[in-house]
Write a structure and sequence with these properties.
three-stranded antiparallel beta sheet; 8 strands; single chain
Length: 134
């Protein structure tokens, strides 16, 4: 798992130096990585959210899945009802720390990747989710 680490900067009114915490959404539902795609879609529908934070058995954030990703997996020709979230998380291991600036977070994400970036504390517990603008 790779955290986007930054150096602490002095407080500044300039928005370039504001941290991702300033623009984060609540983490939302956190689910276990052994959950099936069908159950995850049901949880997502019940929670009326477009993403789920995926955690391991110790409650540590291991990724994020979106409704679009789950729907694509479910609609694929190789889909079975035994596919788990651990089988489909993006595996990027890309997370941001609360001290990361928004610009640094967006620069760290591979070009063309849209969506959300989980924010985790020093213990890899999910704090929230940052919506990316590119």
């Amino acid at each position: 798992m790779t955290l986007v680490r930054t150096q602490t900067r002095p407080a500044s009114p300039n928005s370039v130096h504001s941290t991702v915490v300033d623009g984060m959404d609540a983490a939302g539902p956190q689910v276990w990585y052994d959950m099936t795609v069908e159950v995850a879609l049901s949880v997502m529908a019940a929670a009326r959210t477009g993403h789920l934070v995926v955690c391991d058995e110790d409650g540590l954030c291991v990724g994020l899945v979106t409704r679009a990703r789950l729907a694509a997996v479910r609609d694929s020709c190789g889909y079975t009802d035994r596919i788990r979230l651990s089988d489909i998380t993006d595996g990027s291991g890309l997370f941001a720390s609360p001290l990361t600036t928004r610009a640094e977070a967006e620069d760290a994400v591979p070009y063309g990747r849209l969506g959300r970036l989980p924010l985790v504390d020093e213990h890899d517990s999910a704090l929230g989710v940052l919506a990316l603008s590119r």
